[in-house]
Design a protein that fits this description.
With 273 residues, the protein is of the alpha/beta class. The chain is 45% helix and 11% strand. Bound molecules: uracil.
Length: 273
C-alpha cells in the first residue's frame, strides 16, 4: 500500500471513531467469543502483552473472579497494597484490553472523595482518573470550592480499566470491580463522598432513578460502624454535553462546601493542607 493510501485509511478510521492501535493483525472477536477458554481466565496463565483479545467471562468464571476480587481486596491493609492487589488481579476481561490499571489520583488525607465511572482513552494512557476534558472541568469545579487534587481532594472510579470503545461495563465486570471500590473507600476513610454521575450512583448506592432525581440529595454510606454523607451530582462529561445544567452542579458544589464546613474541613476552602 502507498503511504498516501495508508494515511487516507488511517484518517478514515479516526473519522469513524477508532481511537486506539490494538495490534498489527486484525482480531476476529466473534470467533474469540465463541470459543471460551478451557479453564477460567482467572486461573489461566497471564496473556502475552500483545494479546488484546477480551476474554469472555460469565457464569462460574465470573463468580470465581468476583470471589478472587473480594479476597484480594479484603487482604489489602493500605491503599498501596490495594493498588498492587488490583494490578495483580487477572479476573476482569477489561484489564486485557486496558493499558493501565487506573487506581486513583489526589490526596486521601483531604478526606473528600469523588467517585466517577470508568477511565476513558486519556486516563488509560496516563494511568490516572479524570485527566481528559471531563477531568479539566472537574478540576475547575473542585477549584470553585477550594478543592485541588494535588492537595485536598481524592478521586477514583467505579471501574478501574477502560472498557473498549468506552462501552458500558457489563454487570459482571462492574461486580468484579466493586469489592476493590468498597475496600478503597474503607482505606481512604473519607469524611464526605461525591458520586459523579448515574453509573457511580447506581453501583455505589443502588440508585436506579435518574441522576436528575438523585443529584444534590444527601444519603449515608456505611464504612465500618460509621456513616459517611454521600451525594450524587452530575458527571462533568455530561456537563460538557449539557452546559445549561452547570447551574445544577454548582448548587451541588455549594451543598458540598457547606457540608465540608460543618464536618470541620474549613481548612480545605482556606487553602491549607
Ligand atoms: N470519566 C470518568 O468517569 N472517569 C474518568 O476517569 C474519566 C472520565
Amino acid at each position: 500500500m502507498q503511504d498516501k493510501d495508508a494515511l487516507g485509511t488511517l484518517n478514515w478510521l479516526v473519522e469513524a471513531g477508532a481511537d486506539e492501535a490494538m495490534g498489527e493483525t486484525p482480531v476476529n472477536r466473534l470467533v474469540a467469543r465463541a470459543e471460551p477458554p478451557a479453564v477460567s481466565p482467572m486461573k489461566a496463565s497471564p496473556a502475552p502483552v500483545t494479546a488484546k483479545v477480551p476474554l469472555p467471562v460469565g457464569g462460574a468464571a465470573a463468580g470465581d473472579a468476583i470471589s478472587d476480587a473480594m479476597a484480594r481486596a479484603a487482604a489489602a491493609t493500605s491503599l498501596a497494597e490495594l493498588k498492587s492487589a488490583m494490578e495483580g488481579f487477572e479476573g476482569c476481561p477489561l484489564k486485557r484490553t486496558a493499558t493501565h490499571t487506573v487506581f486513583a489520583d489526589g490526596n486521601p488525607k483531604g478526606r473528600v472523595l469523588f467517585i466517577g465511572e470508568a477511565p476513558g482513552r486519556d486516563e488509560d494512557r496516563v494511568g490516572k482518573p479524570f485527566v481528559g476534558r471531563a477531568g479539566q472541568l472537574l478540576d475547575k469545579m473542585l477549584a470553585s470550592i477550594g478543592l485541588d487534587r494535588t492537595r485536598n481532594a481524592y478521586i477514583t472510579n467505579v471501574i478501574n480499566w477502560r472498557p473498549p470503545d468506552n462501552r458500558d461495563p457489563s454487570p459482571e465486570e462492574a461486580a468484579m470491580c466493586m469489592p476493590f471500590l468498597r475496600r478503597h473507600i474503607e482505606l481512604a476513610d473519607p469524611l464526605v463522598i461525591v458520586l459523579l454521575g448515574a453509573v457511580a450512583a447506581r453501583h455505589v448506592m443502588g440508585i436506579s432513578d435518574g441522576i436528575m432525581k438523585s443529584r444534590g440529595r444527601w444519603m449515608d454510606y456505611r464504612v465500618g460502624d460509621r456513616m459517611v454523607p454521600i451525594m450524587p451530582t452530575l458527571h462533568p462529561a455530561y456537563l460538557l454535553r449539557q452546559p445549561g445544567h452547570k447551574k445544577l452542579a454548582w448548587r451541588d458544589l455549594q451543598a458540598l462546601a457547606a457540608r465540608m464546613e460543618s464536618l470541620g474541613l474549613p481548612e480545605l476552602s482556606a487553602g491549607g493542607n
